[in-house]
Amino acid sequence: MTALKNDRFLRALLKQPVDVTPVWMMRQAGRYLPEYRASRANAGDFMSLCMNPEFACEVTMQPLDRYPQLDAAILFSDILTIPDAMGQGLYFETGEGPRFKKVISTLADIEALPIPDPHKDLGYVMDAVSTIRRELNGRVPLIGFSGSPWTLATYMVEGGSSKDFRKTKAMLYDNPQAMHLLLDKLAQSVVSYLNGQIMAGAQAVQIFDTWGGNLSAAAYQEFSLAYMRKIVSGLIREHEGRKVPVILFTKGGGLWLESIADAGADALGLDWTCDLGEARRRVGNQVALQGNMDPTVLYAKPEAIRTEVGRILASYGKGSGHVFNLGHGITPEVNPEHAGAFLRAVHELSAQYHE
Ligand code: CP3
């Protein structure tokens, strides 16, 4: 076990003092990087990158090698590995996003779904985590991740991406028992998947609830947050002599921060629609915050990016408990030099907010 050379990401998630605000980017390994596109061409396609631990490790390291400012690495994989392991047959149609060969539409379909064994059915992810940890050699902490049950359910029931979640919403209101059974199976699967990642070397975990914000206030509590709370209570919270912080990211969850903060996680991810300082006042001392620059700011020039970073840092104010990030994933069209300007600005402008 190698000692961590840079632990400011883990410290900020636990609200411990740091020298500068730590930073990473959701989707930091991805198509905006020419070196990623080259690796994907070498591997053949996206799923081959995910399923080969050497390739997954290679692309995880690419943003770290390009940007020495990054304070965390994130496992290169996808949230849809779980439904694939449940037998749905995940594939990617070029330019079309994810698709499943088998779509879930009835109670019988849900009853037939197995709970994947992380070592037998998702061993390639566990191997990727341990390979990346070895390669990182203590440089920065490694983040593991999963989708939230609700977000995974939308892909499983729609058969891919969706604009209106027509089938998933109809199932939720027509047949809530079936939806609850699906979400419960997913919550069990996520607990053992994330615990497997933690035992393999993930030092923090993030749950991506990308579509939670699409629910009504009442449905969010019952069909998304309740299952994330259940997951958080089943996770291994300490490993290798350190706390393993848990981050919950509900995109569009800004109206519900108080109840999300109460779910038992260490930190909340915020999208760009909420003011960071106001969010801090609302959640008080309960959790750390991660976010929340609008990713499209990266289309602007470096000076404008720097101004926006300064505004967000000032909004949070003095003290620890903030991990800088984008409010959602970096997009393929971003100029990699703009991402570099963003990361440099966070470290340069944040020192004044720490003792
Ligand atoms: O952050 C990282 O660098 C780690 C890698 C990561 C990927 N997907 C790689 C990926 C993570 C954390 C995810 C999570 C994920 N996957 C989410 C939740 C986060 C979010 O963005 O809201 C969701 C909803 C998915 C499902 C998914 N995977 C979609 C909808 C798509 C297609 C969208 C697109 O941009 O084309 C993917 C594919 C995917 N996952 C890519 C990457 C780098 C692009 C695939 C490619 O190389 O063509």
Could you characterize the architecture of this molecule?
This protein is an alpha/beta fold. Strands 1-4-5-8-9-10-11 form a 7-stranded parallel sheet. A two-stranded antiparallel ribbon has the order 2-3. The radius of gyration is 19 Å and the shape is globular. The relative contact order is 0.14. Bound molecules: coproporphyrinogen III. The site of coproporphyrinogen III has 20 residues, from strand 3. Coproporphyrinogen III (CP3) binds next to strand 3.
Short description:
It contains 16 helices and eleven strands. With 355 residues, it is α/β, with parallel strands linked by helices.
> Spans of 5+ residues with little confidence (pLDDT < 50)?
none
Which ligands are bound? coproporphyrinogen III
Counting DSSP E segments of at least 2 residues, the number of strands comes to 11
Please report which band the strand proportion falls in: under 5%, 5-15%, 15-25%, 25-35%, 35-45% or over 45%.
5-15%
- What is the element string, with H for helices and E for strands? HHHHEHEEHHHEHHHEHEEEHEHEHEH
Overall body shape: globular
Strand count, sense and barrel status of the largest sheet are: 7 strands, parallel
- Label the structural class: alpha/beta
| Amino- and carboxy-terminal Cα gap | 30 Å
Within the largest sheet, what's the order of strands?
1-4-5-8-9-10-11
Number of helices: 16
Helix content: 40-55%
- Radius of gyration based on Cα positions: 19 Å
* Mean pLDDT rating: 97
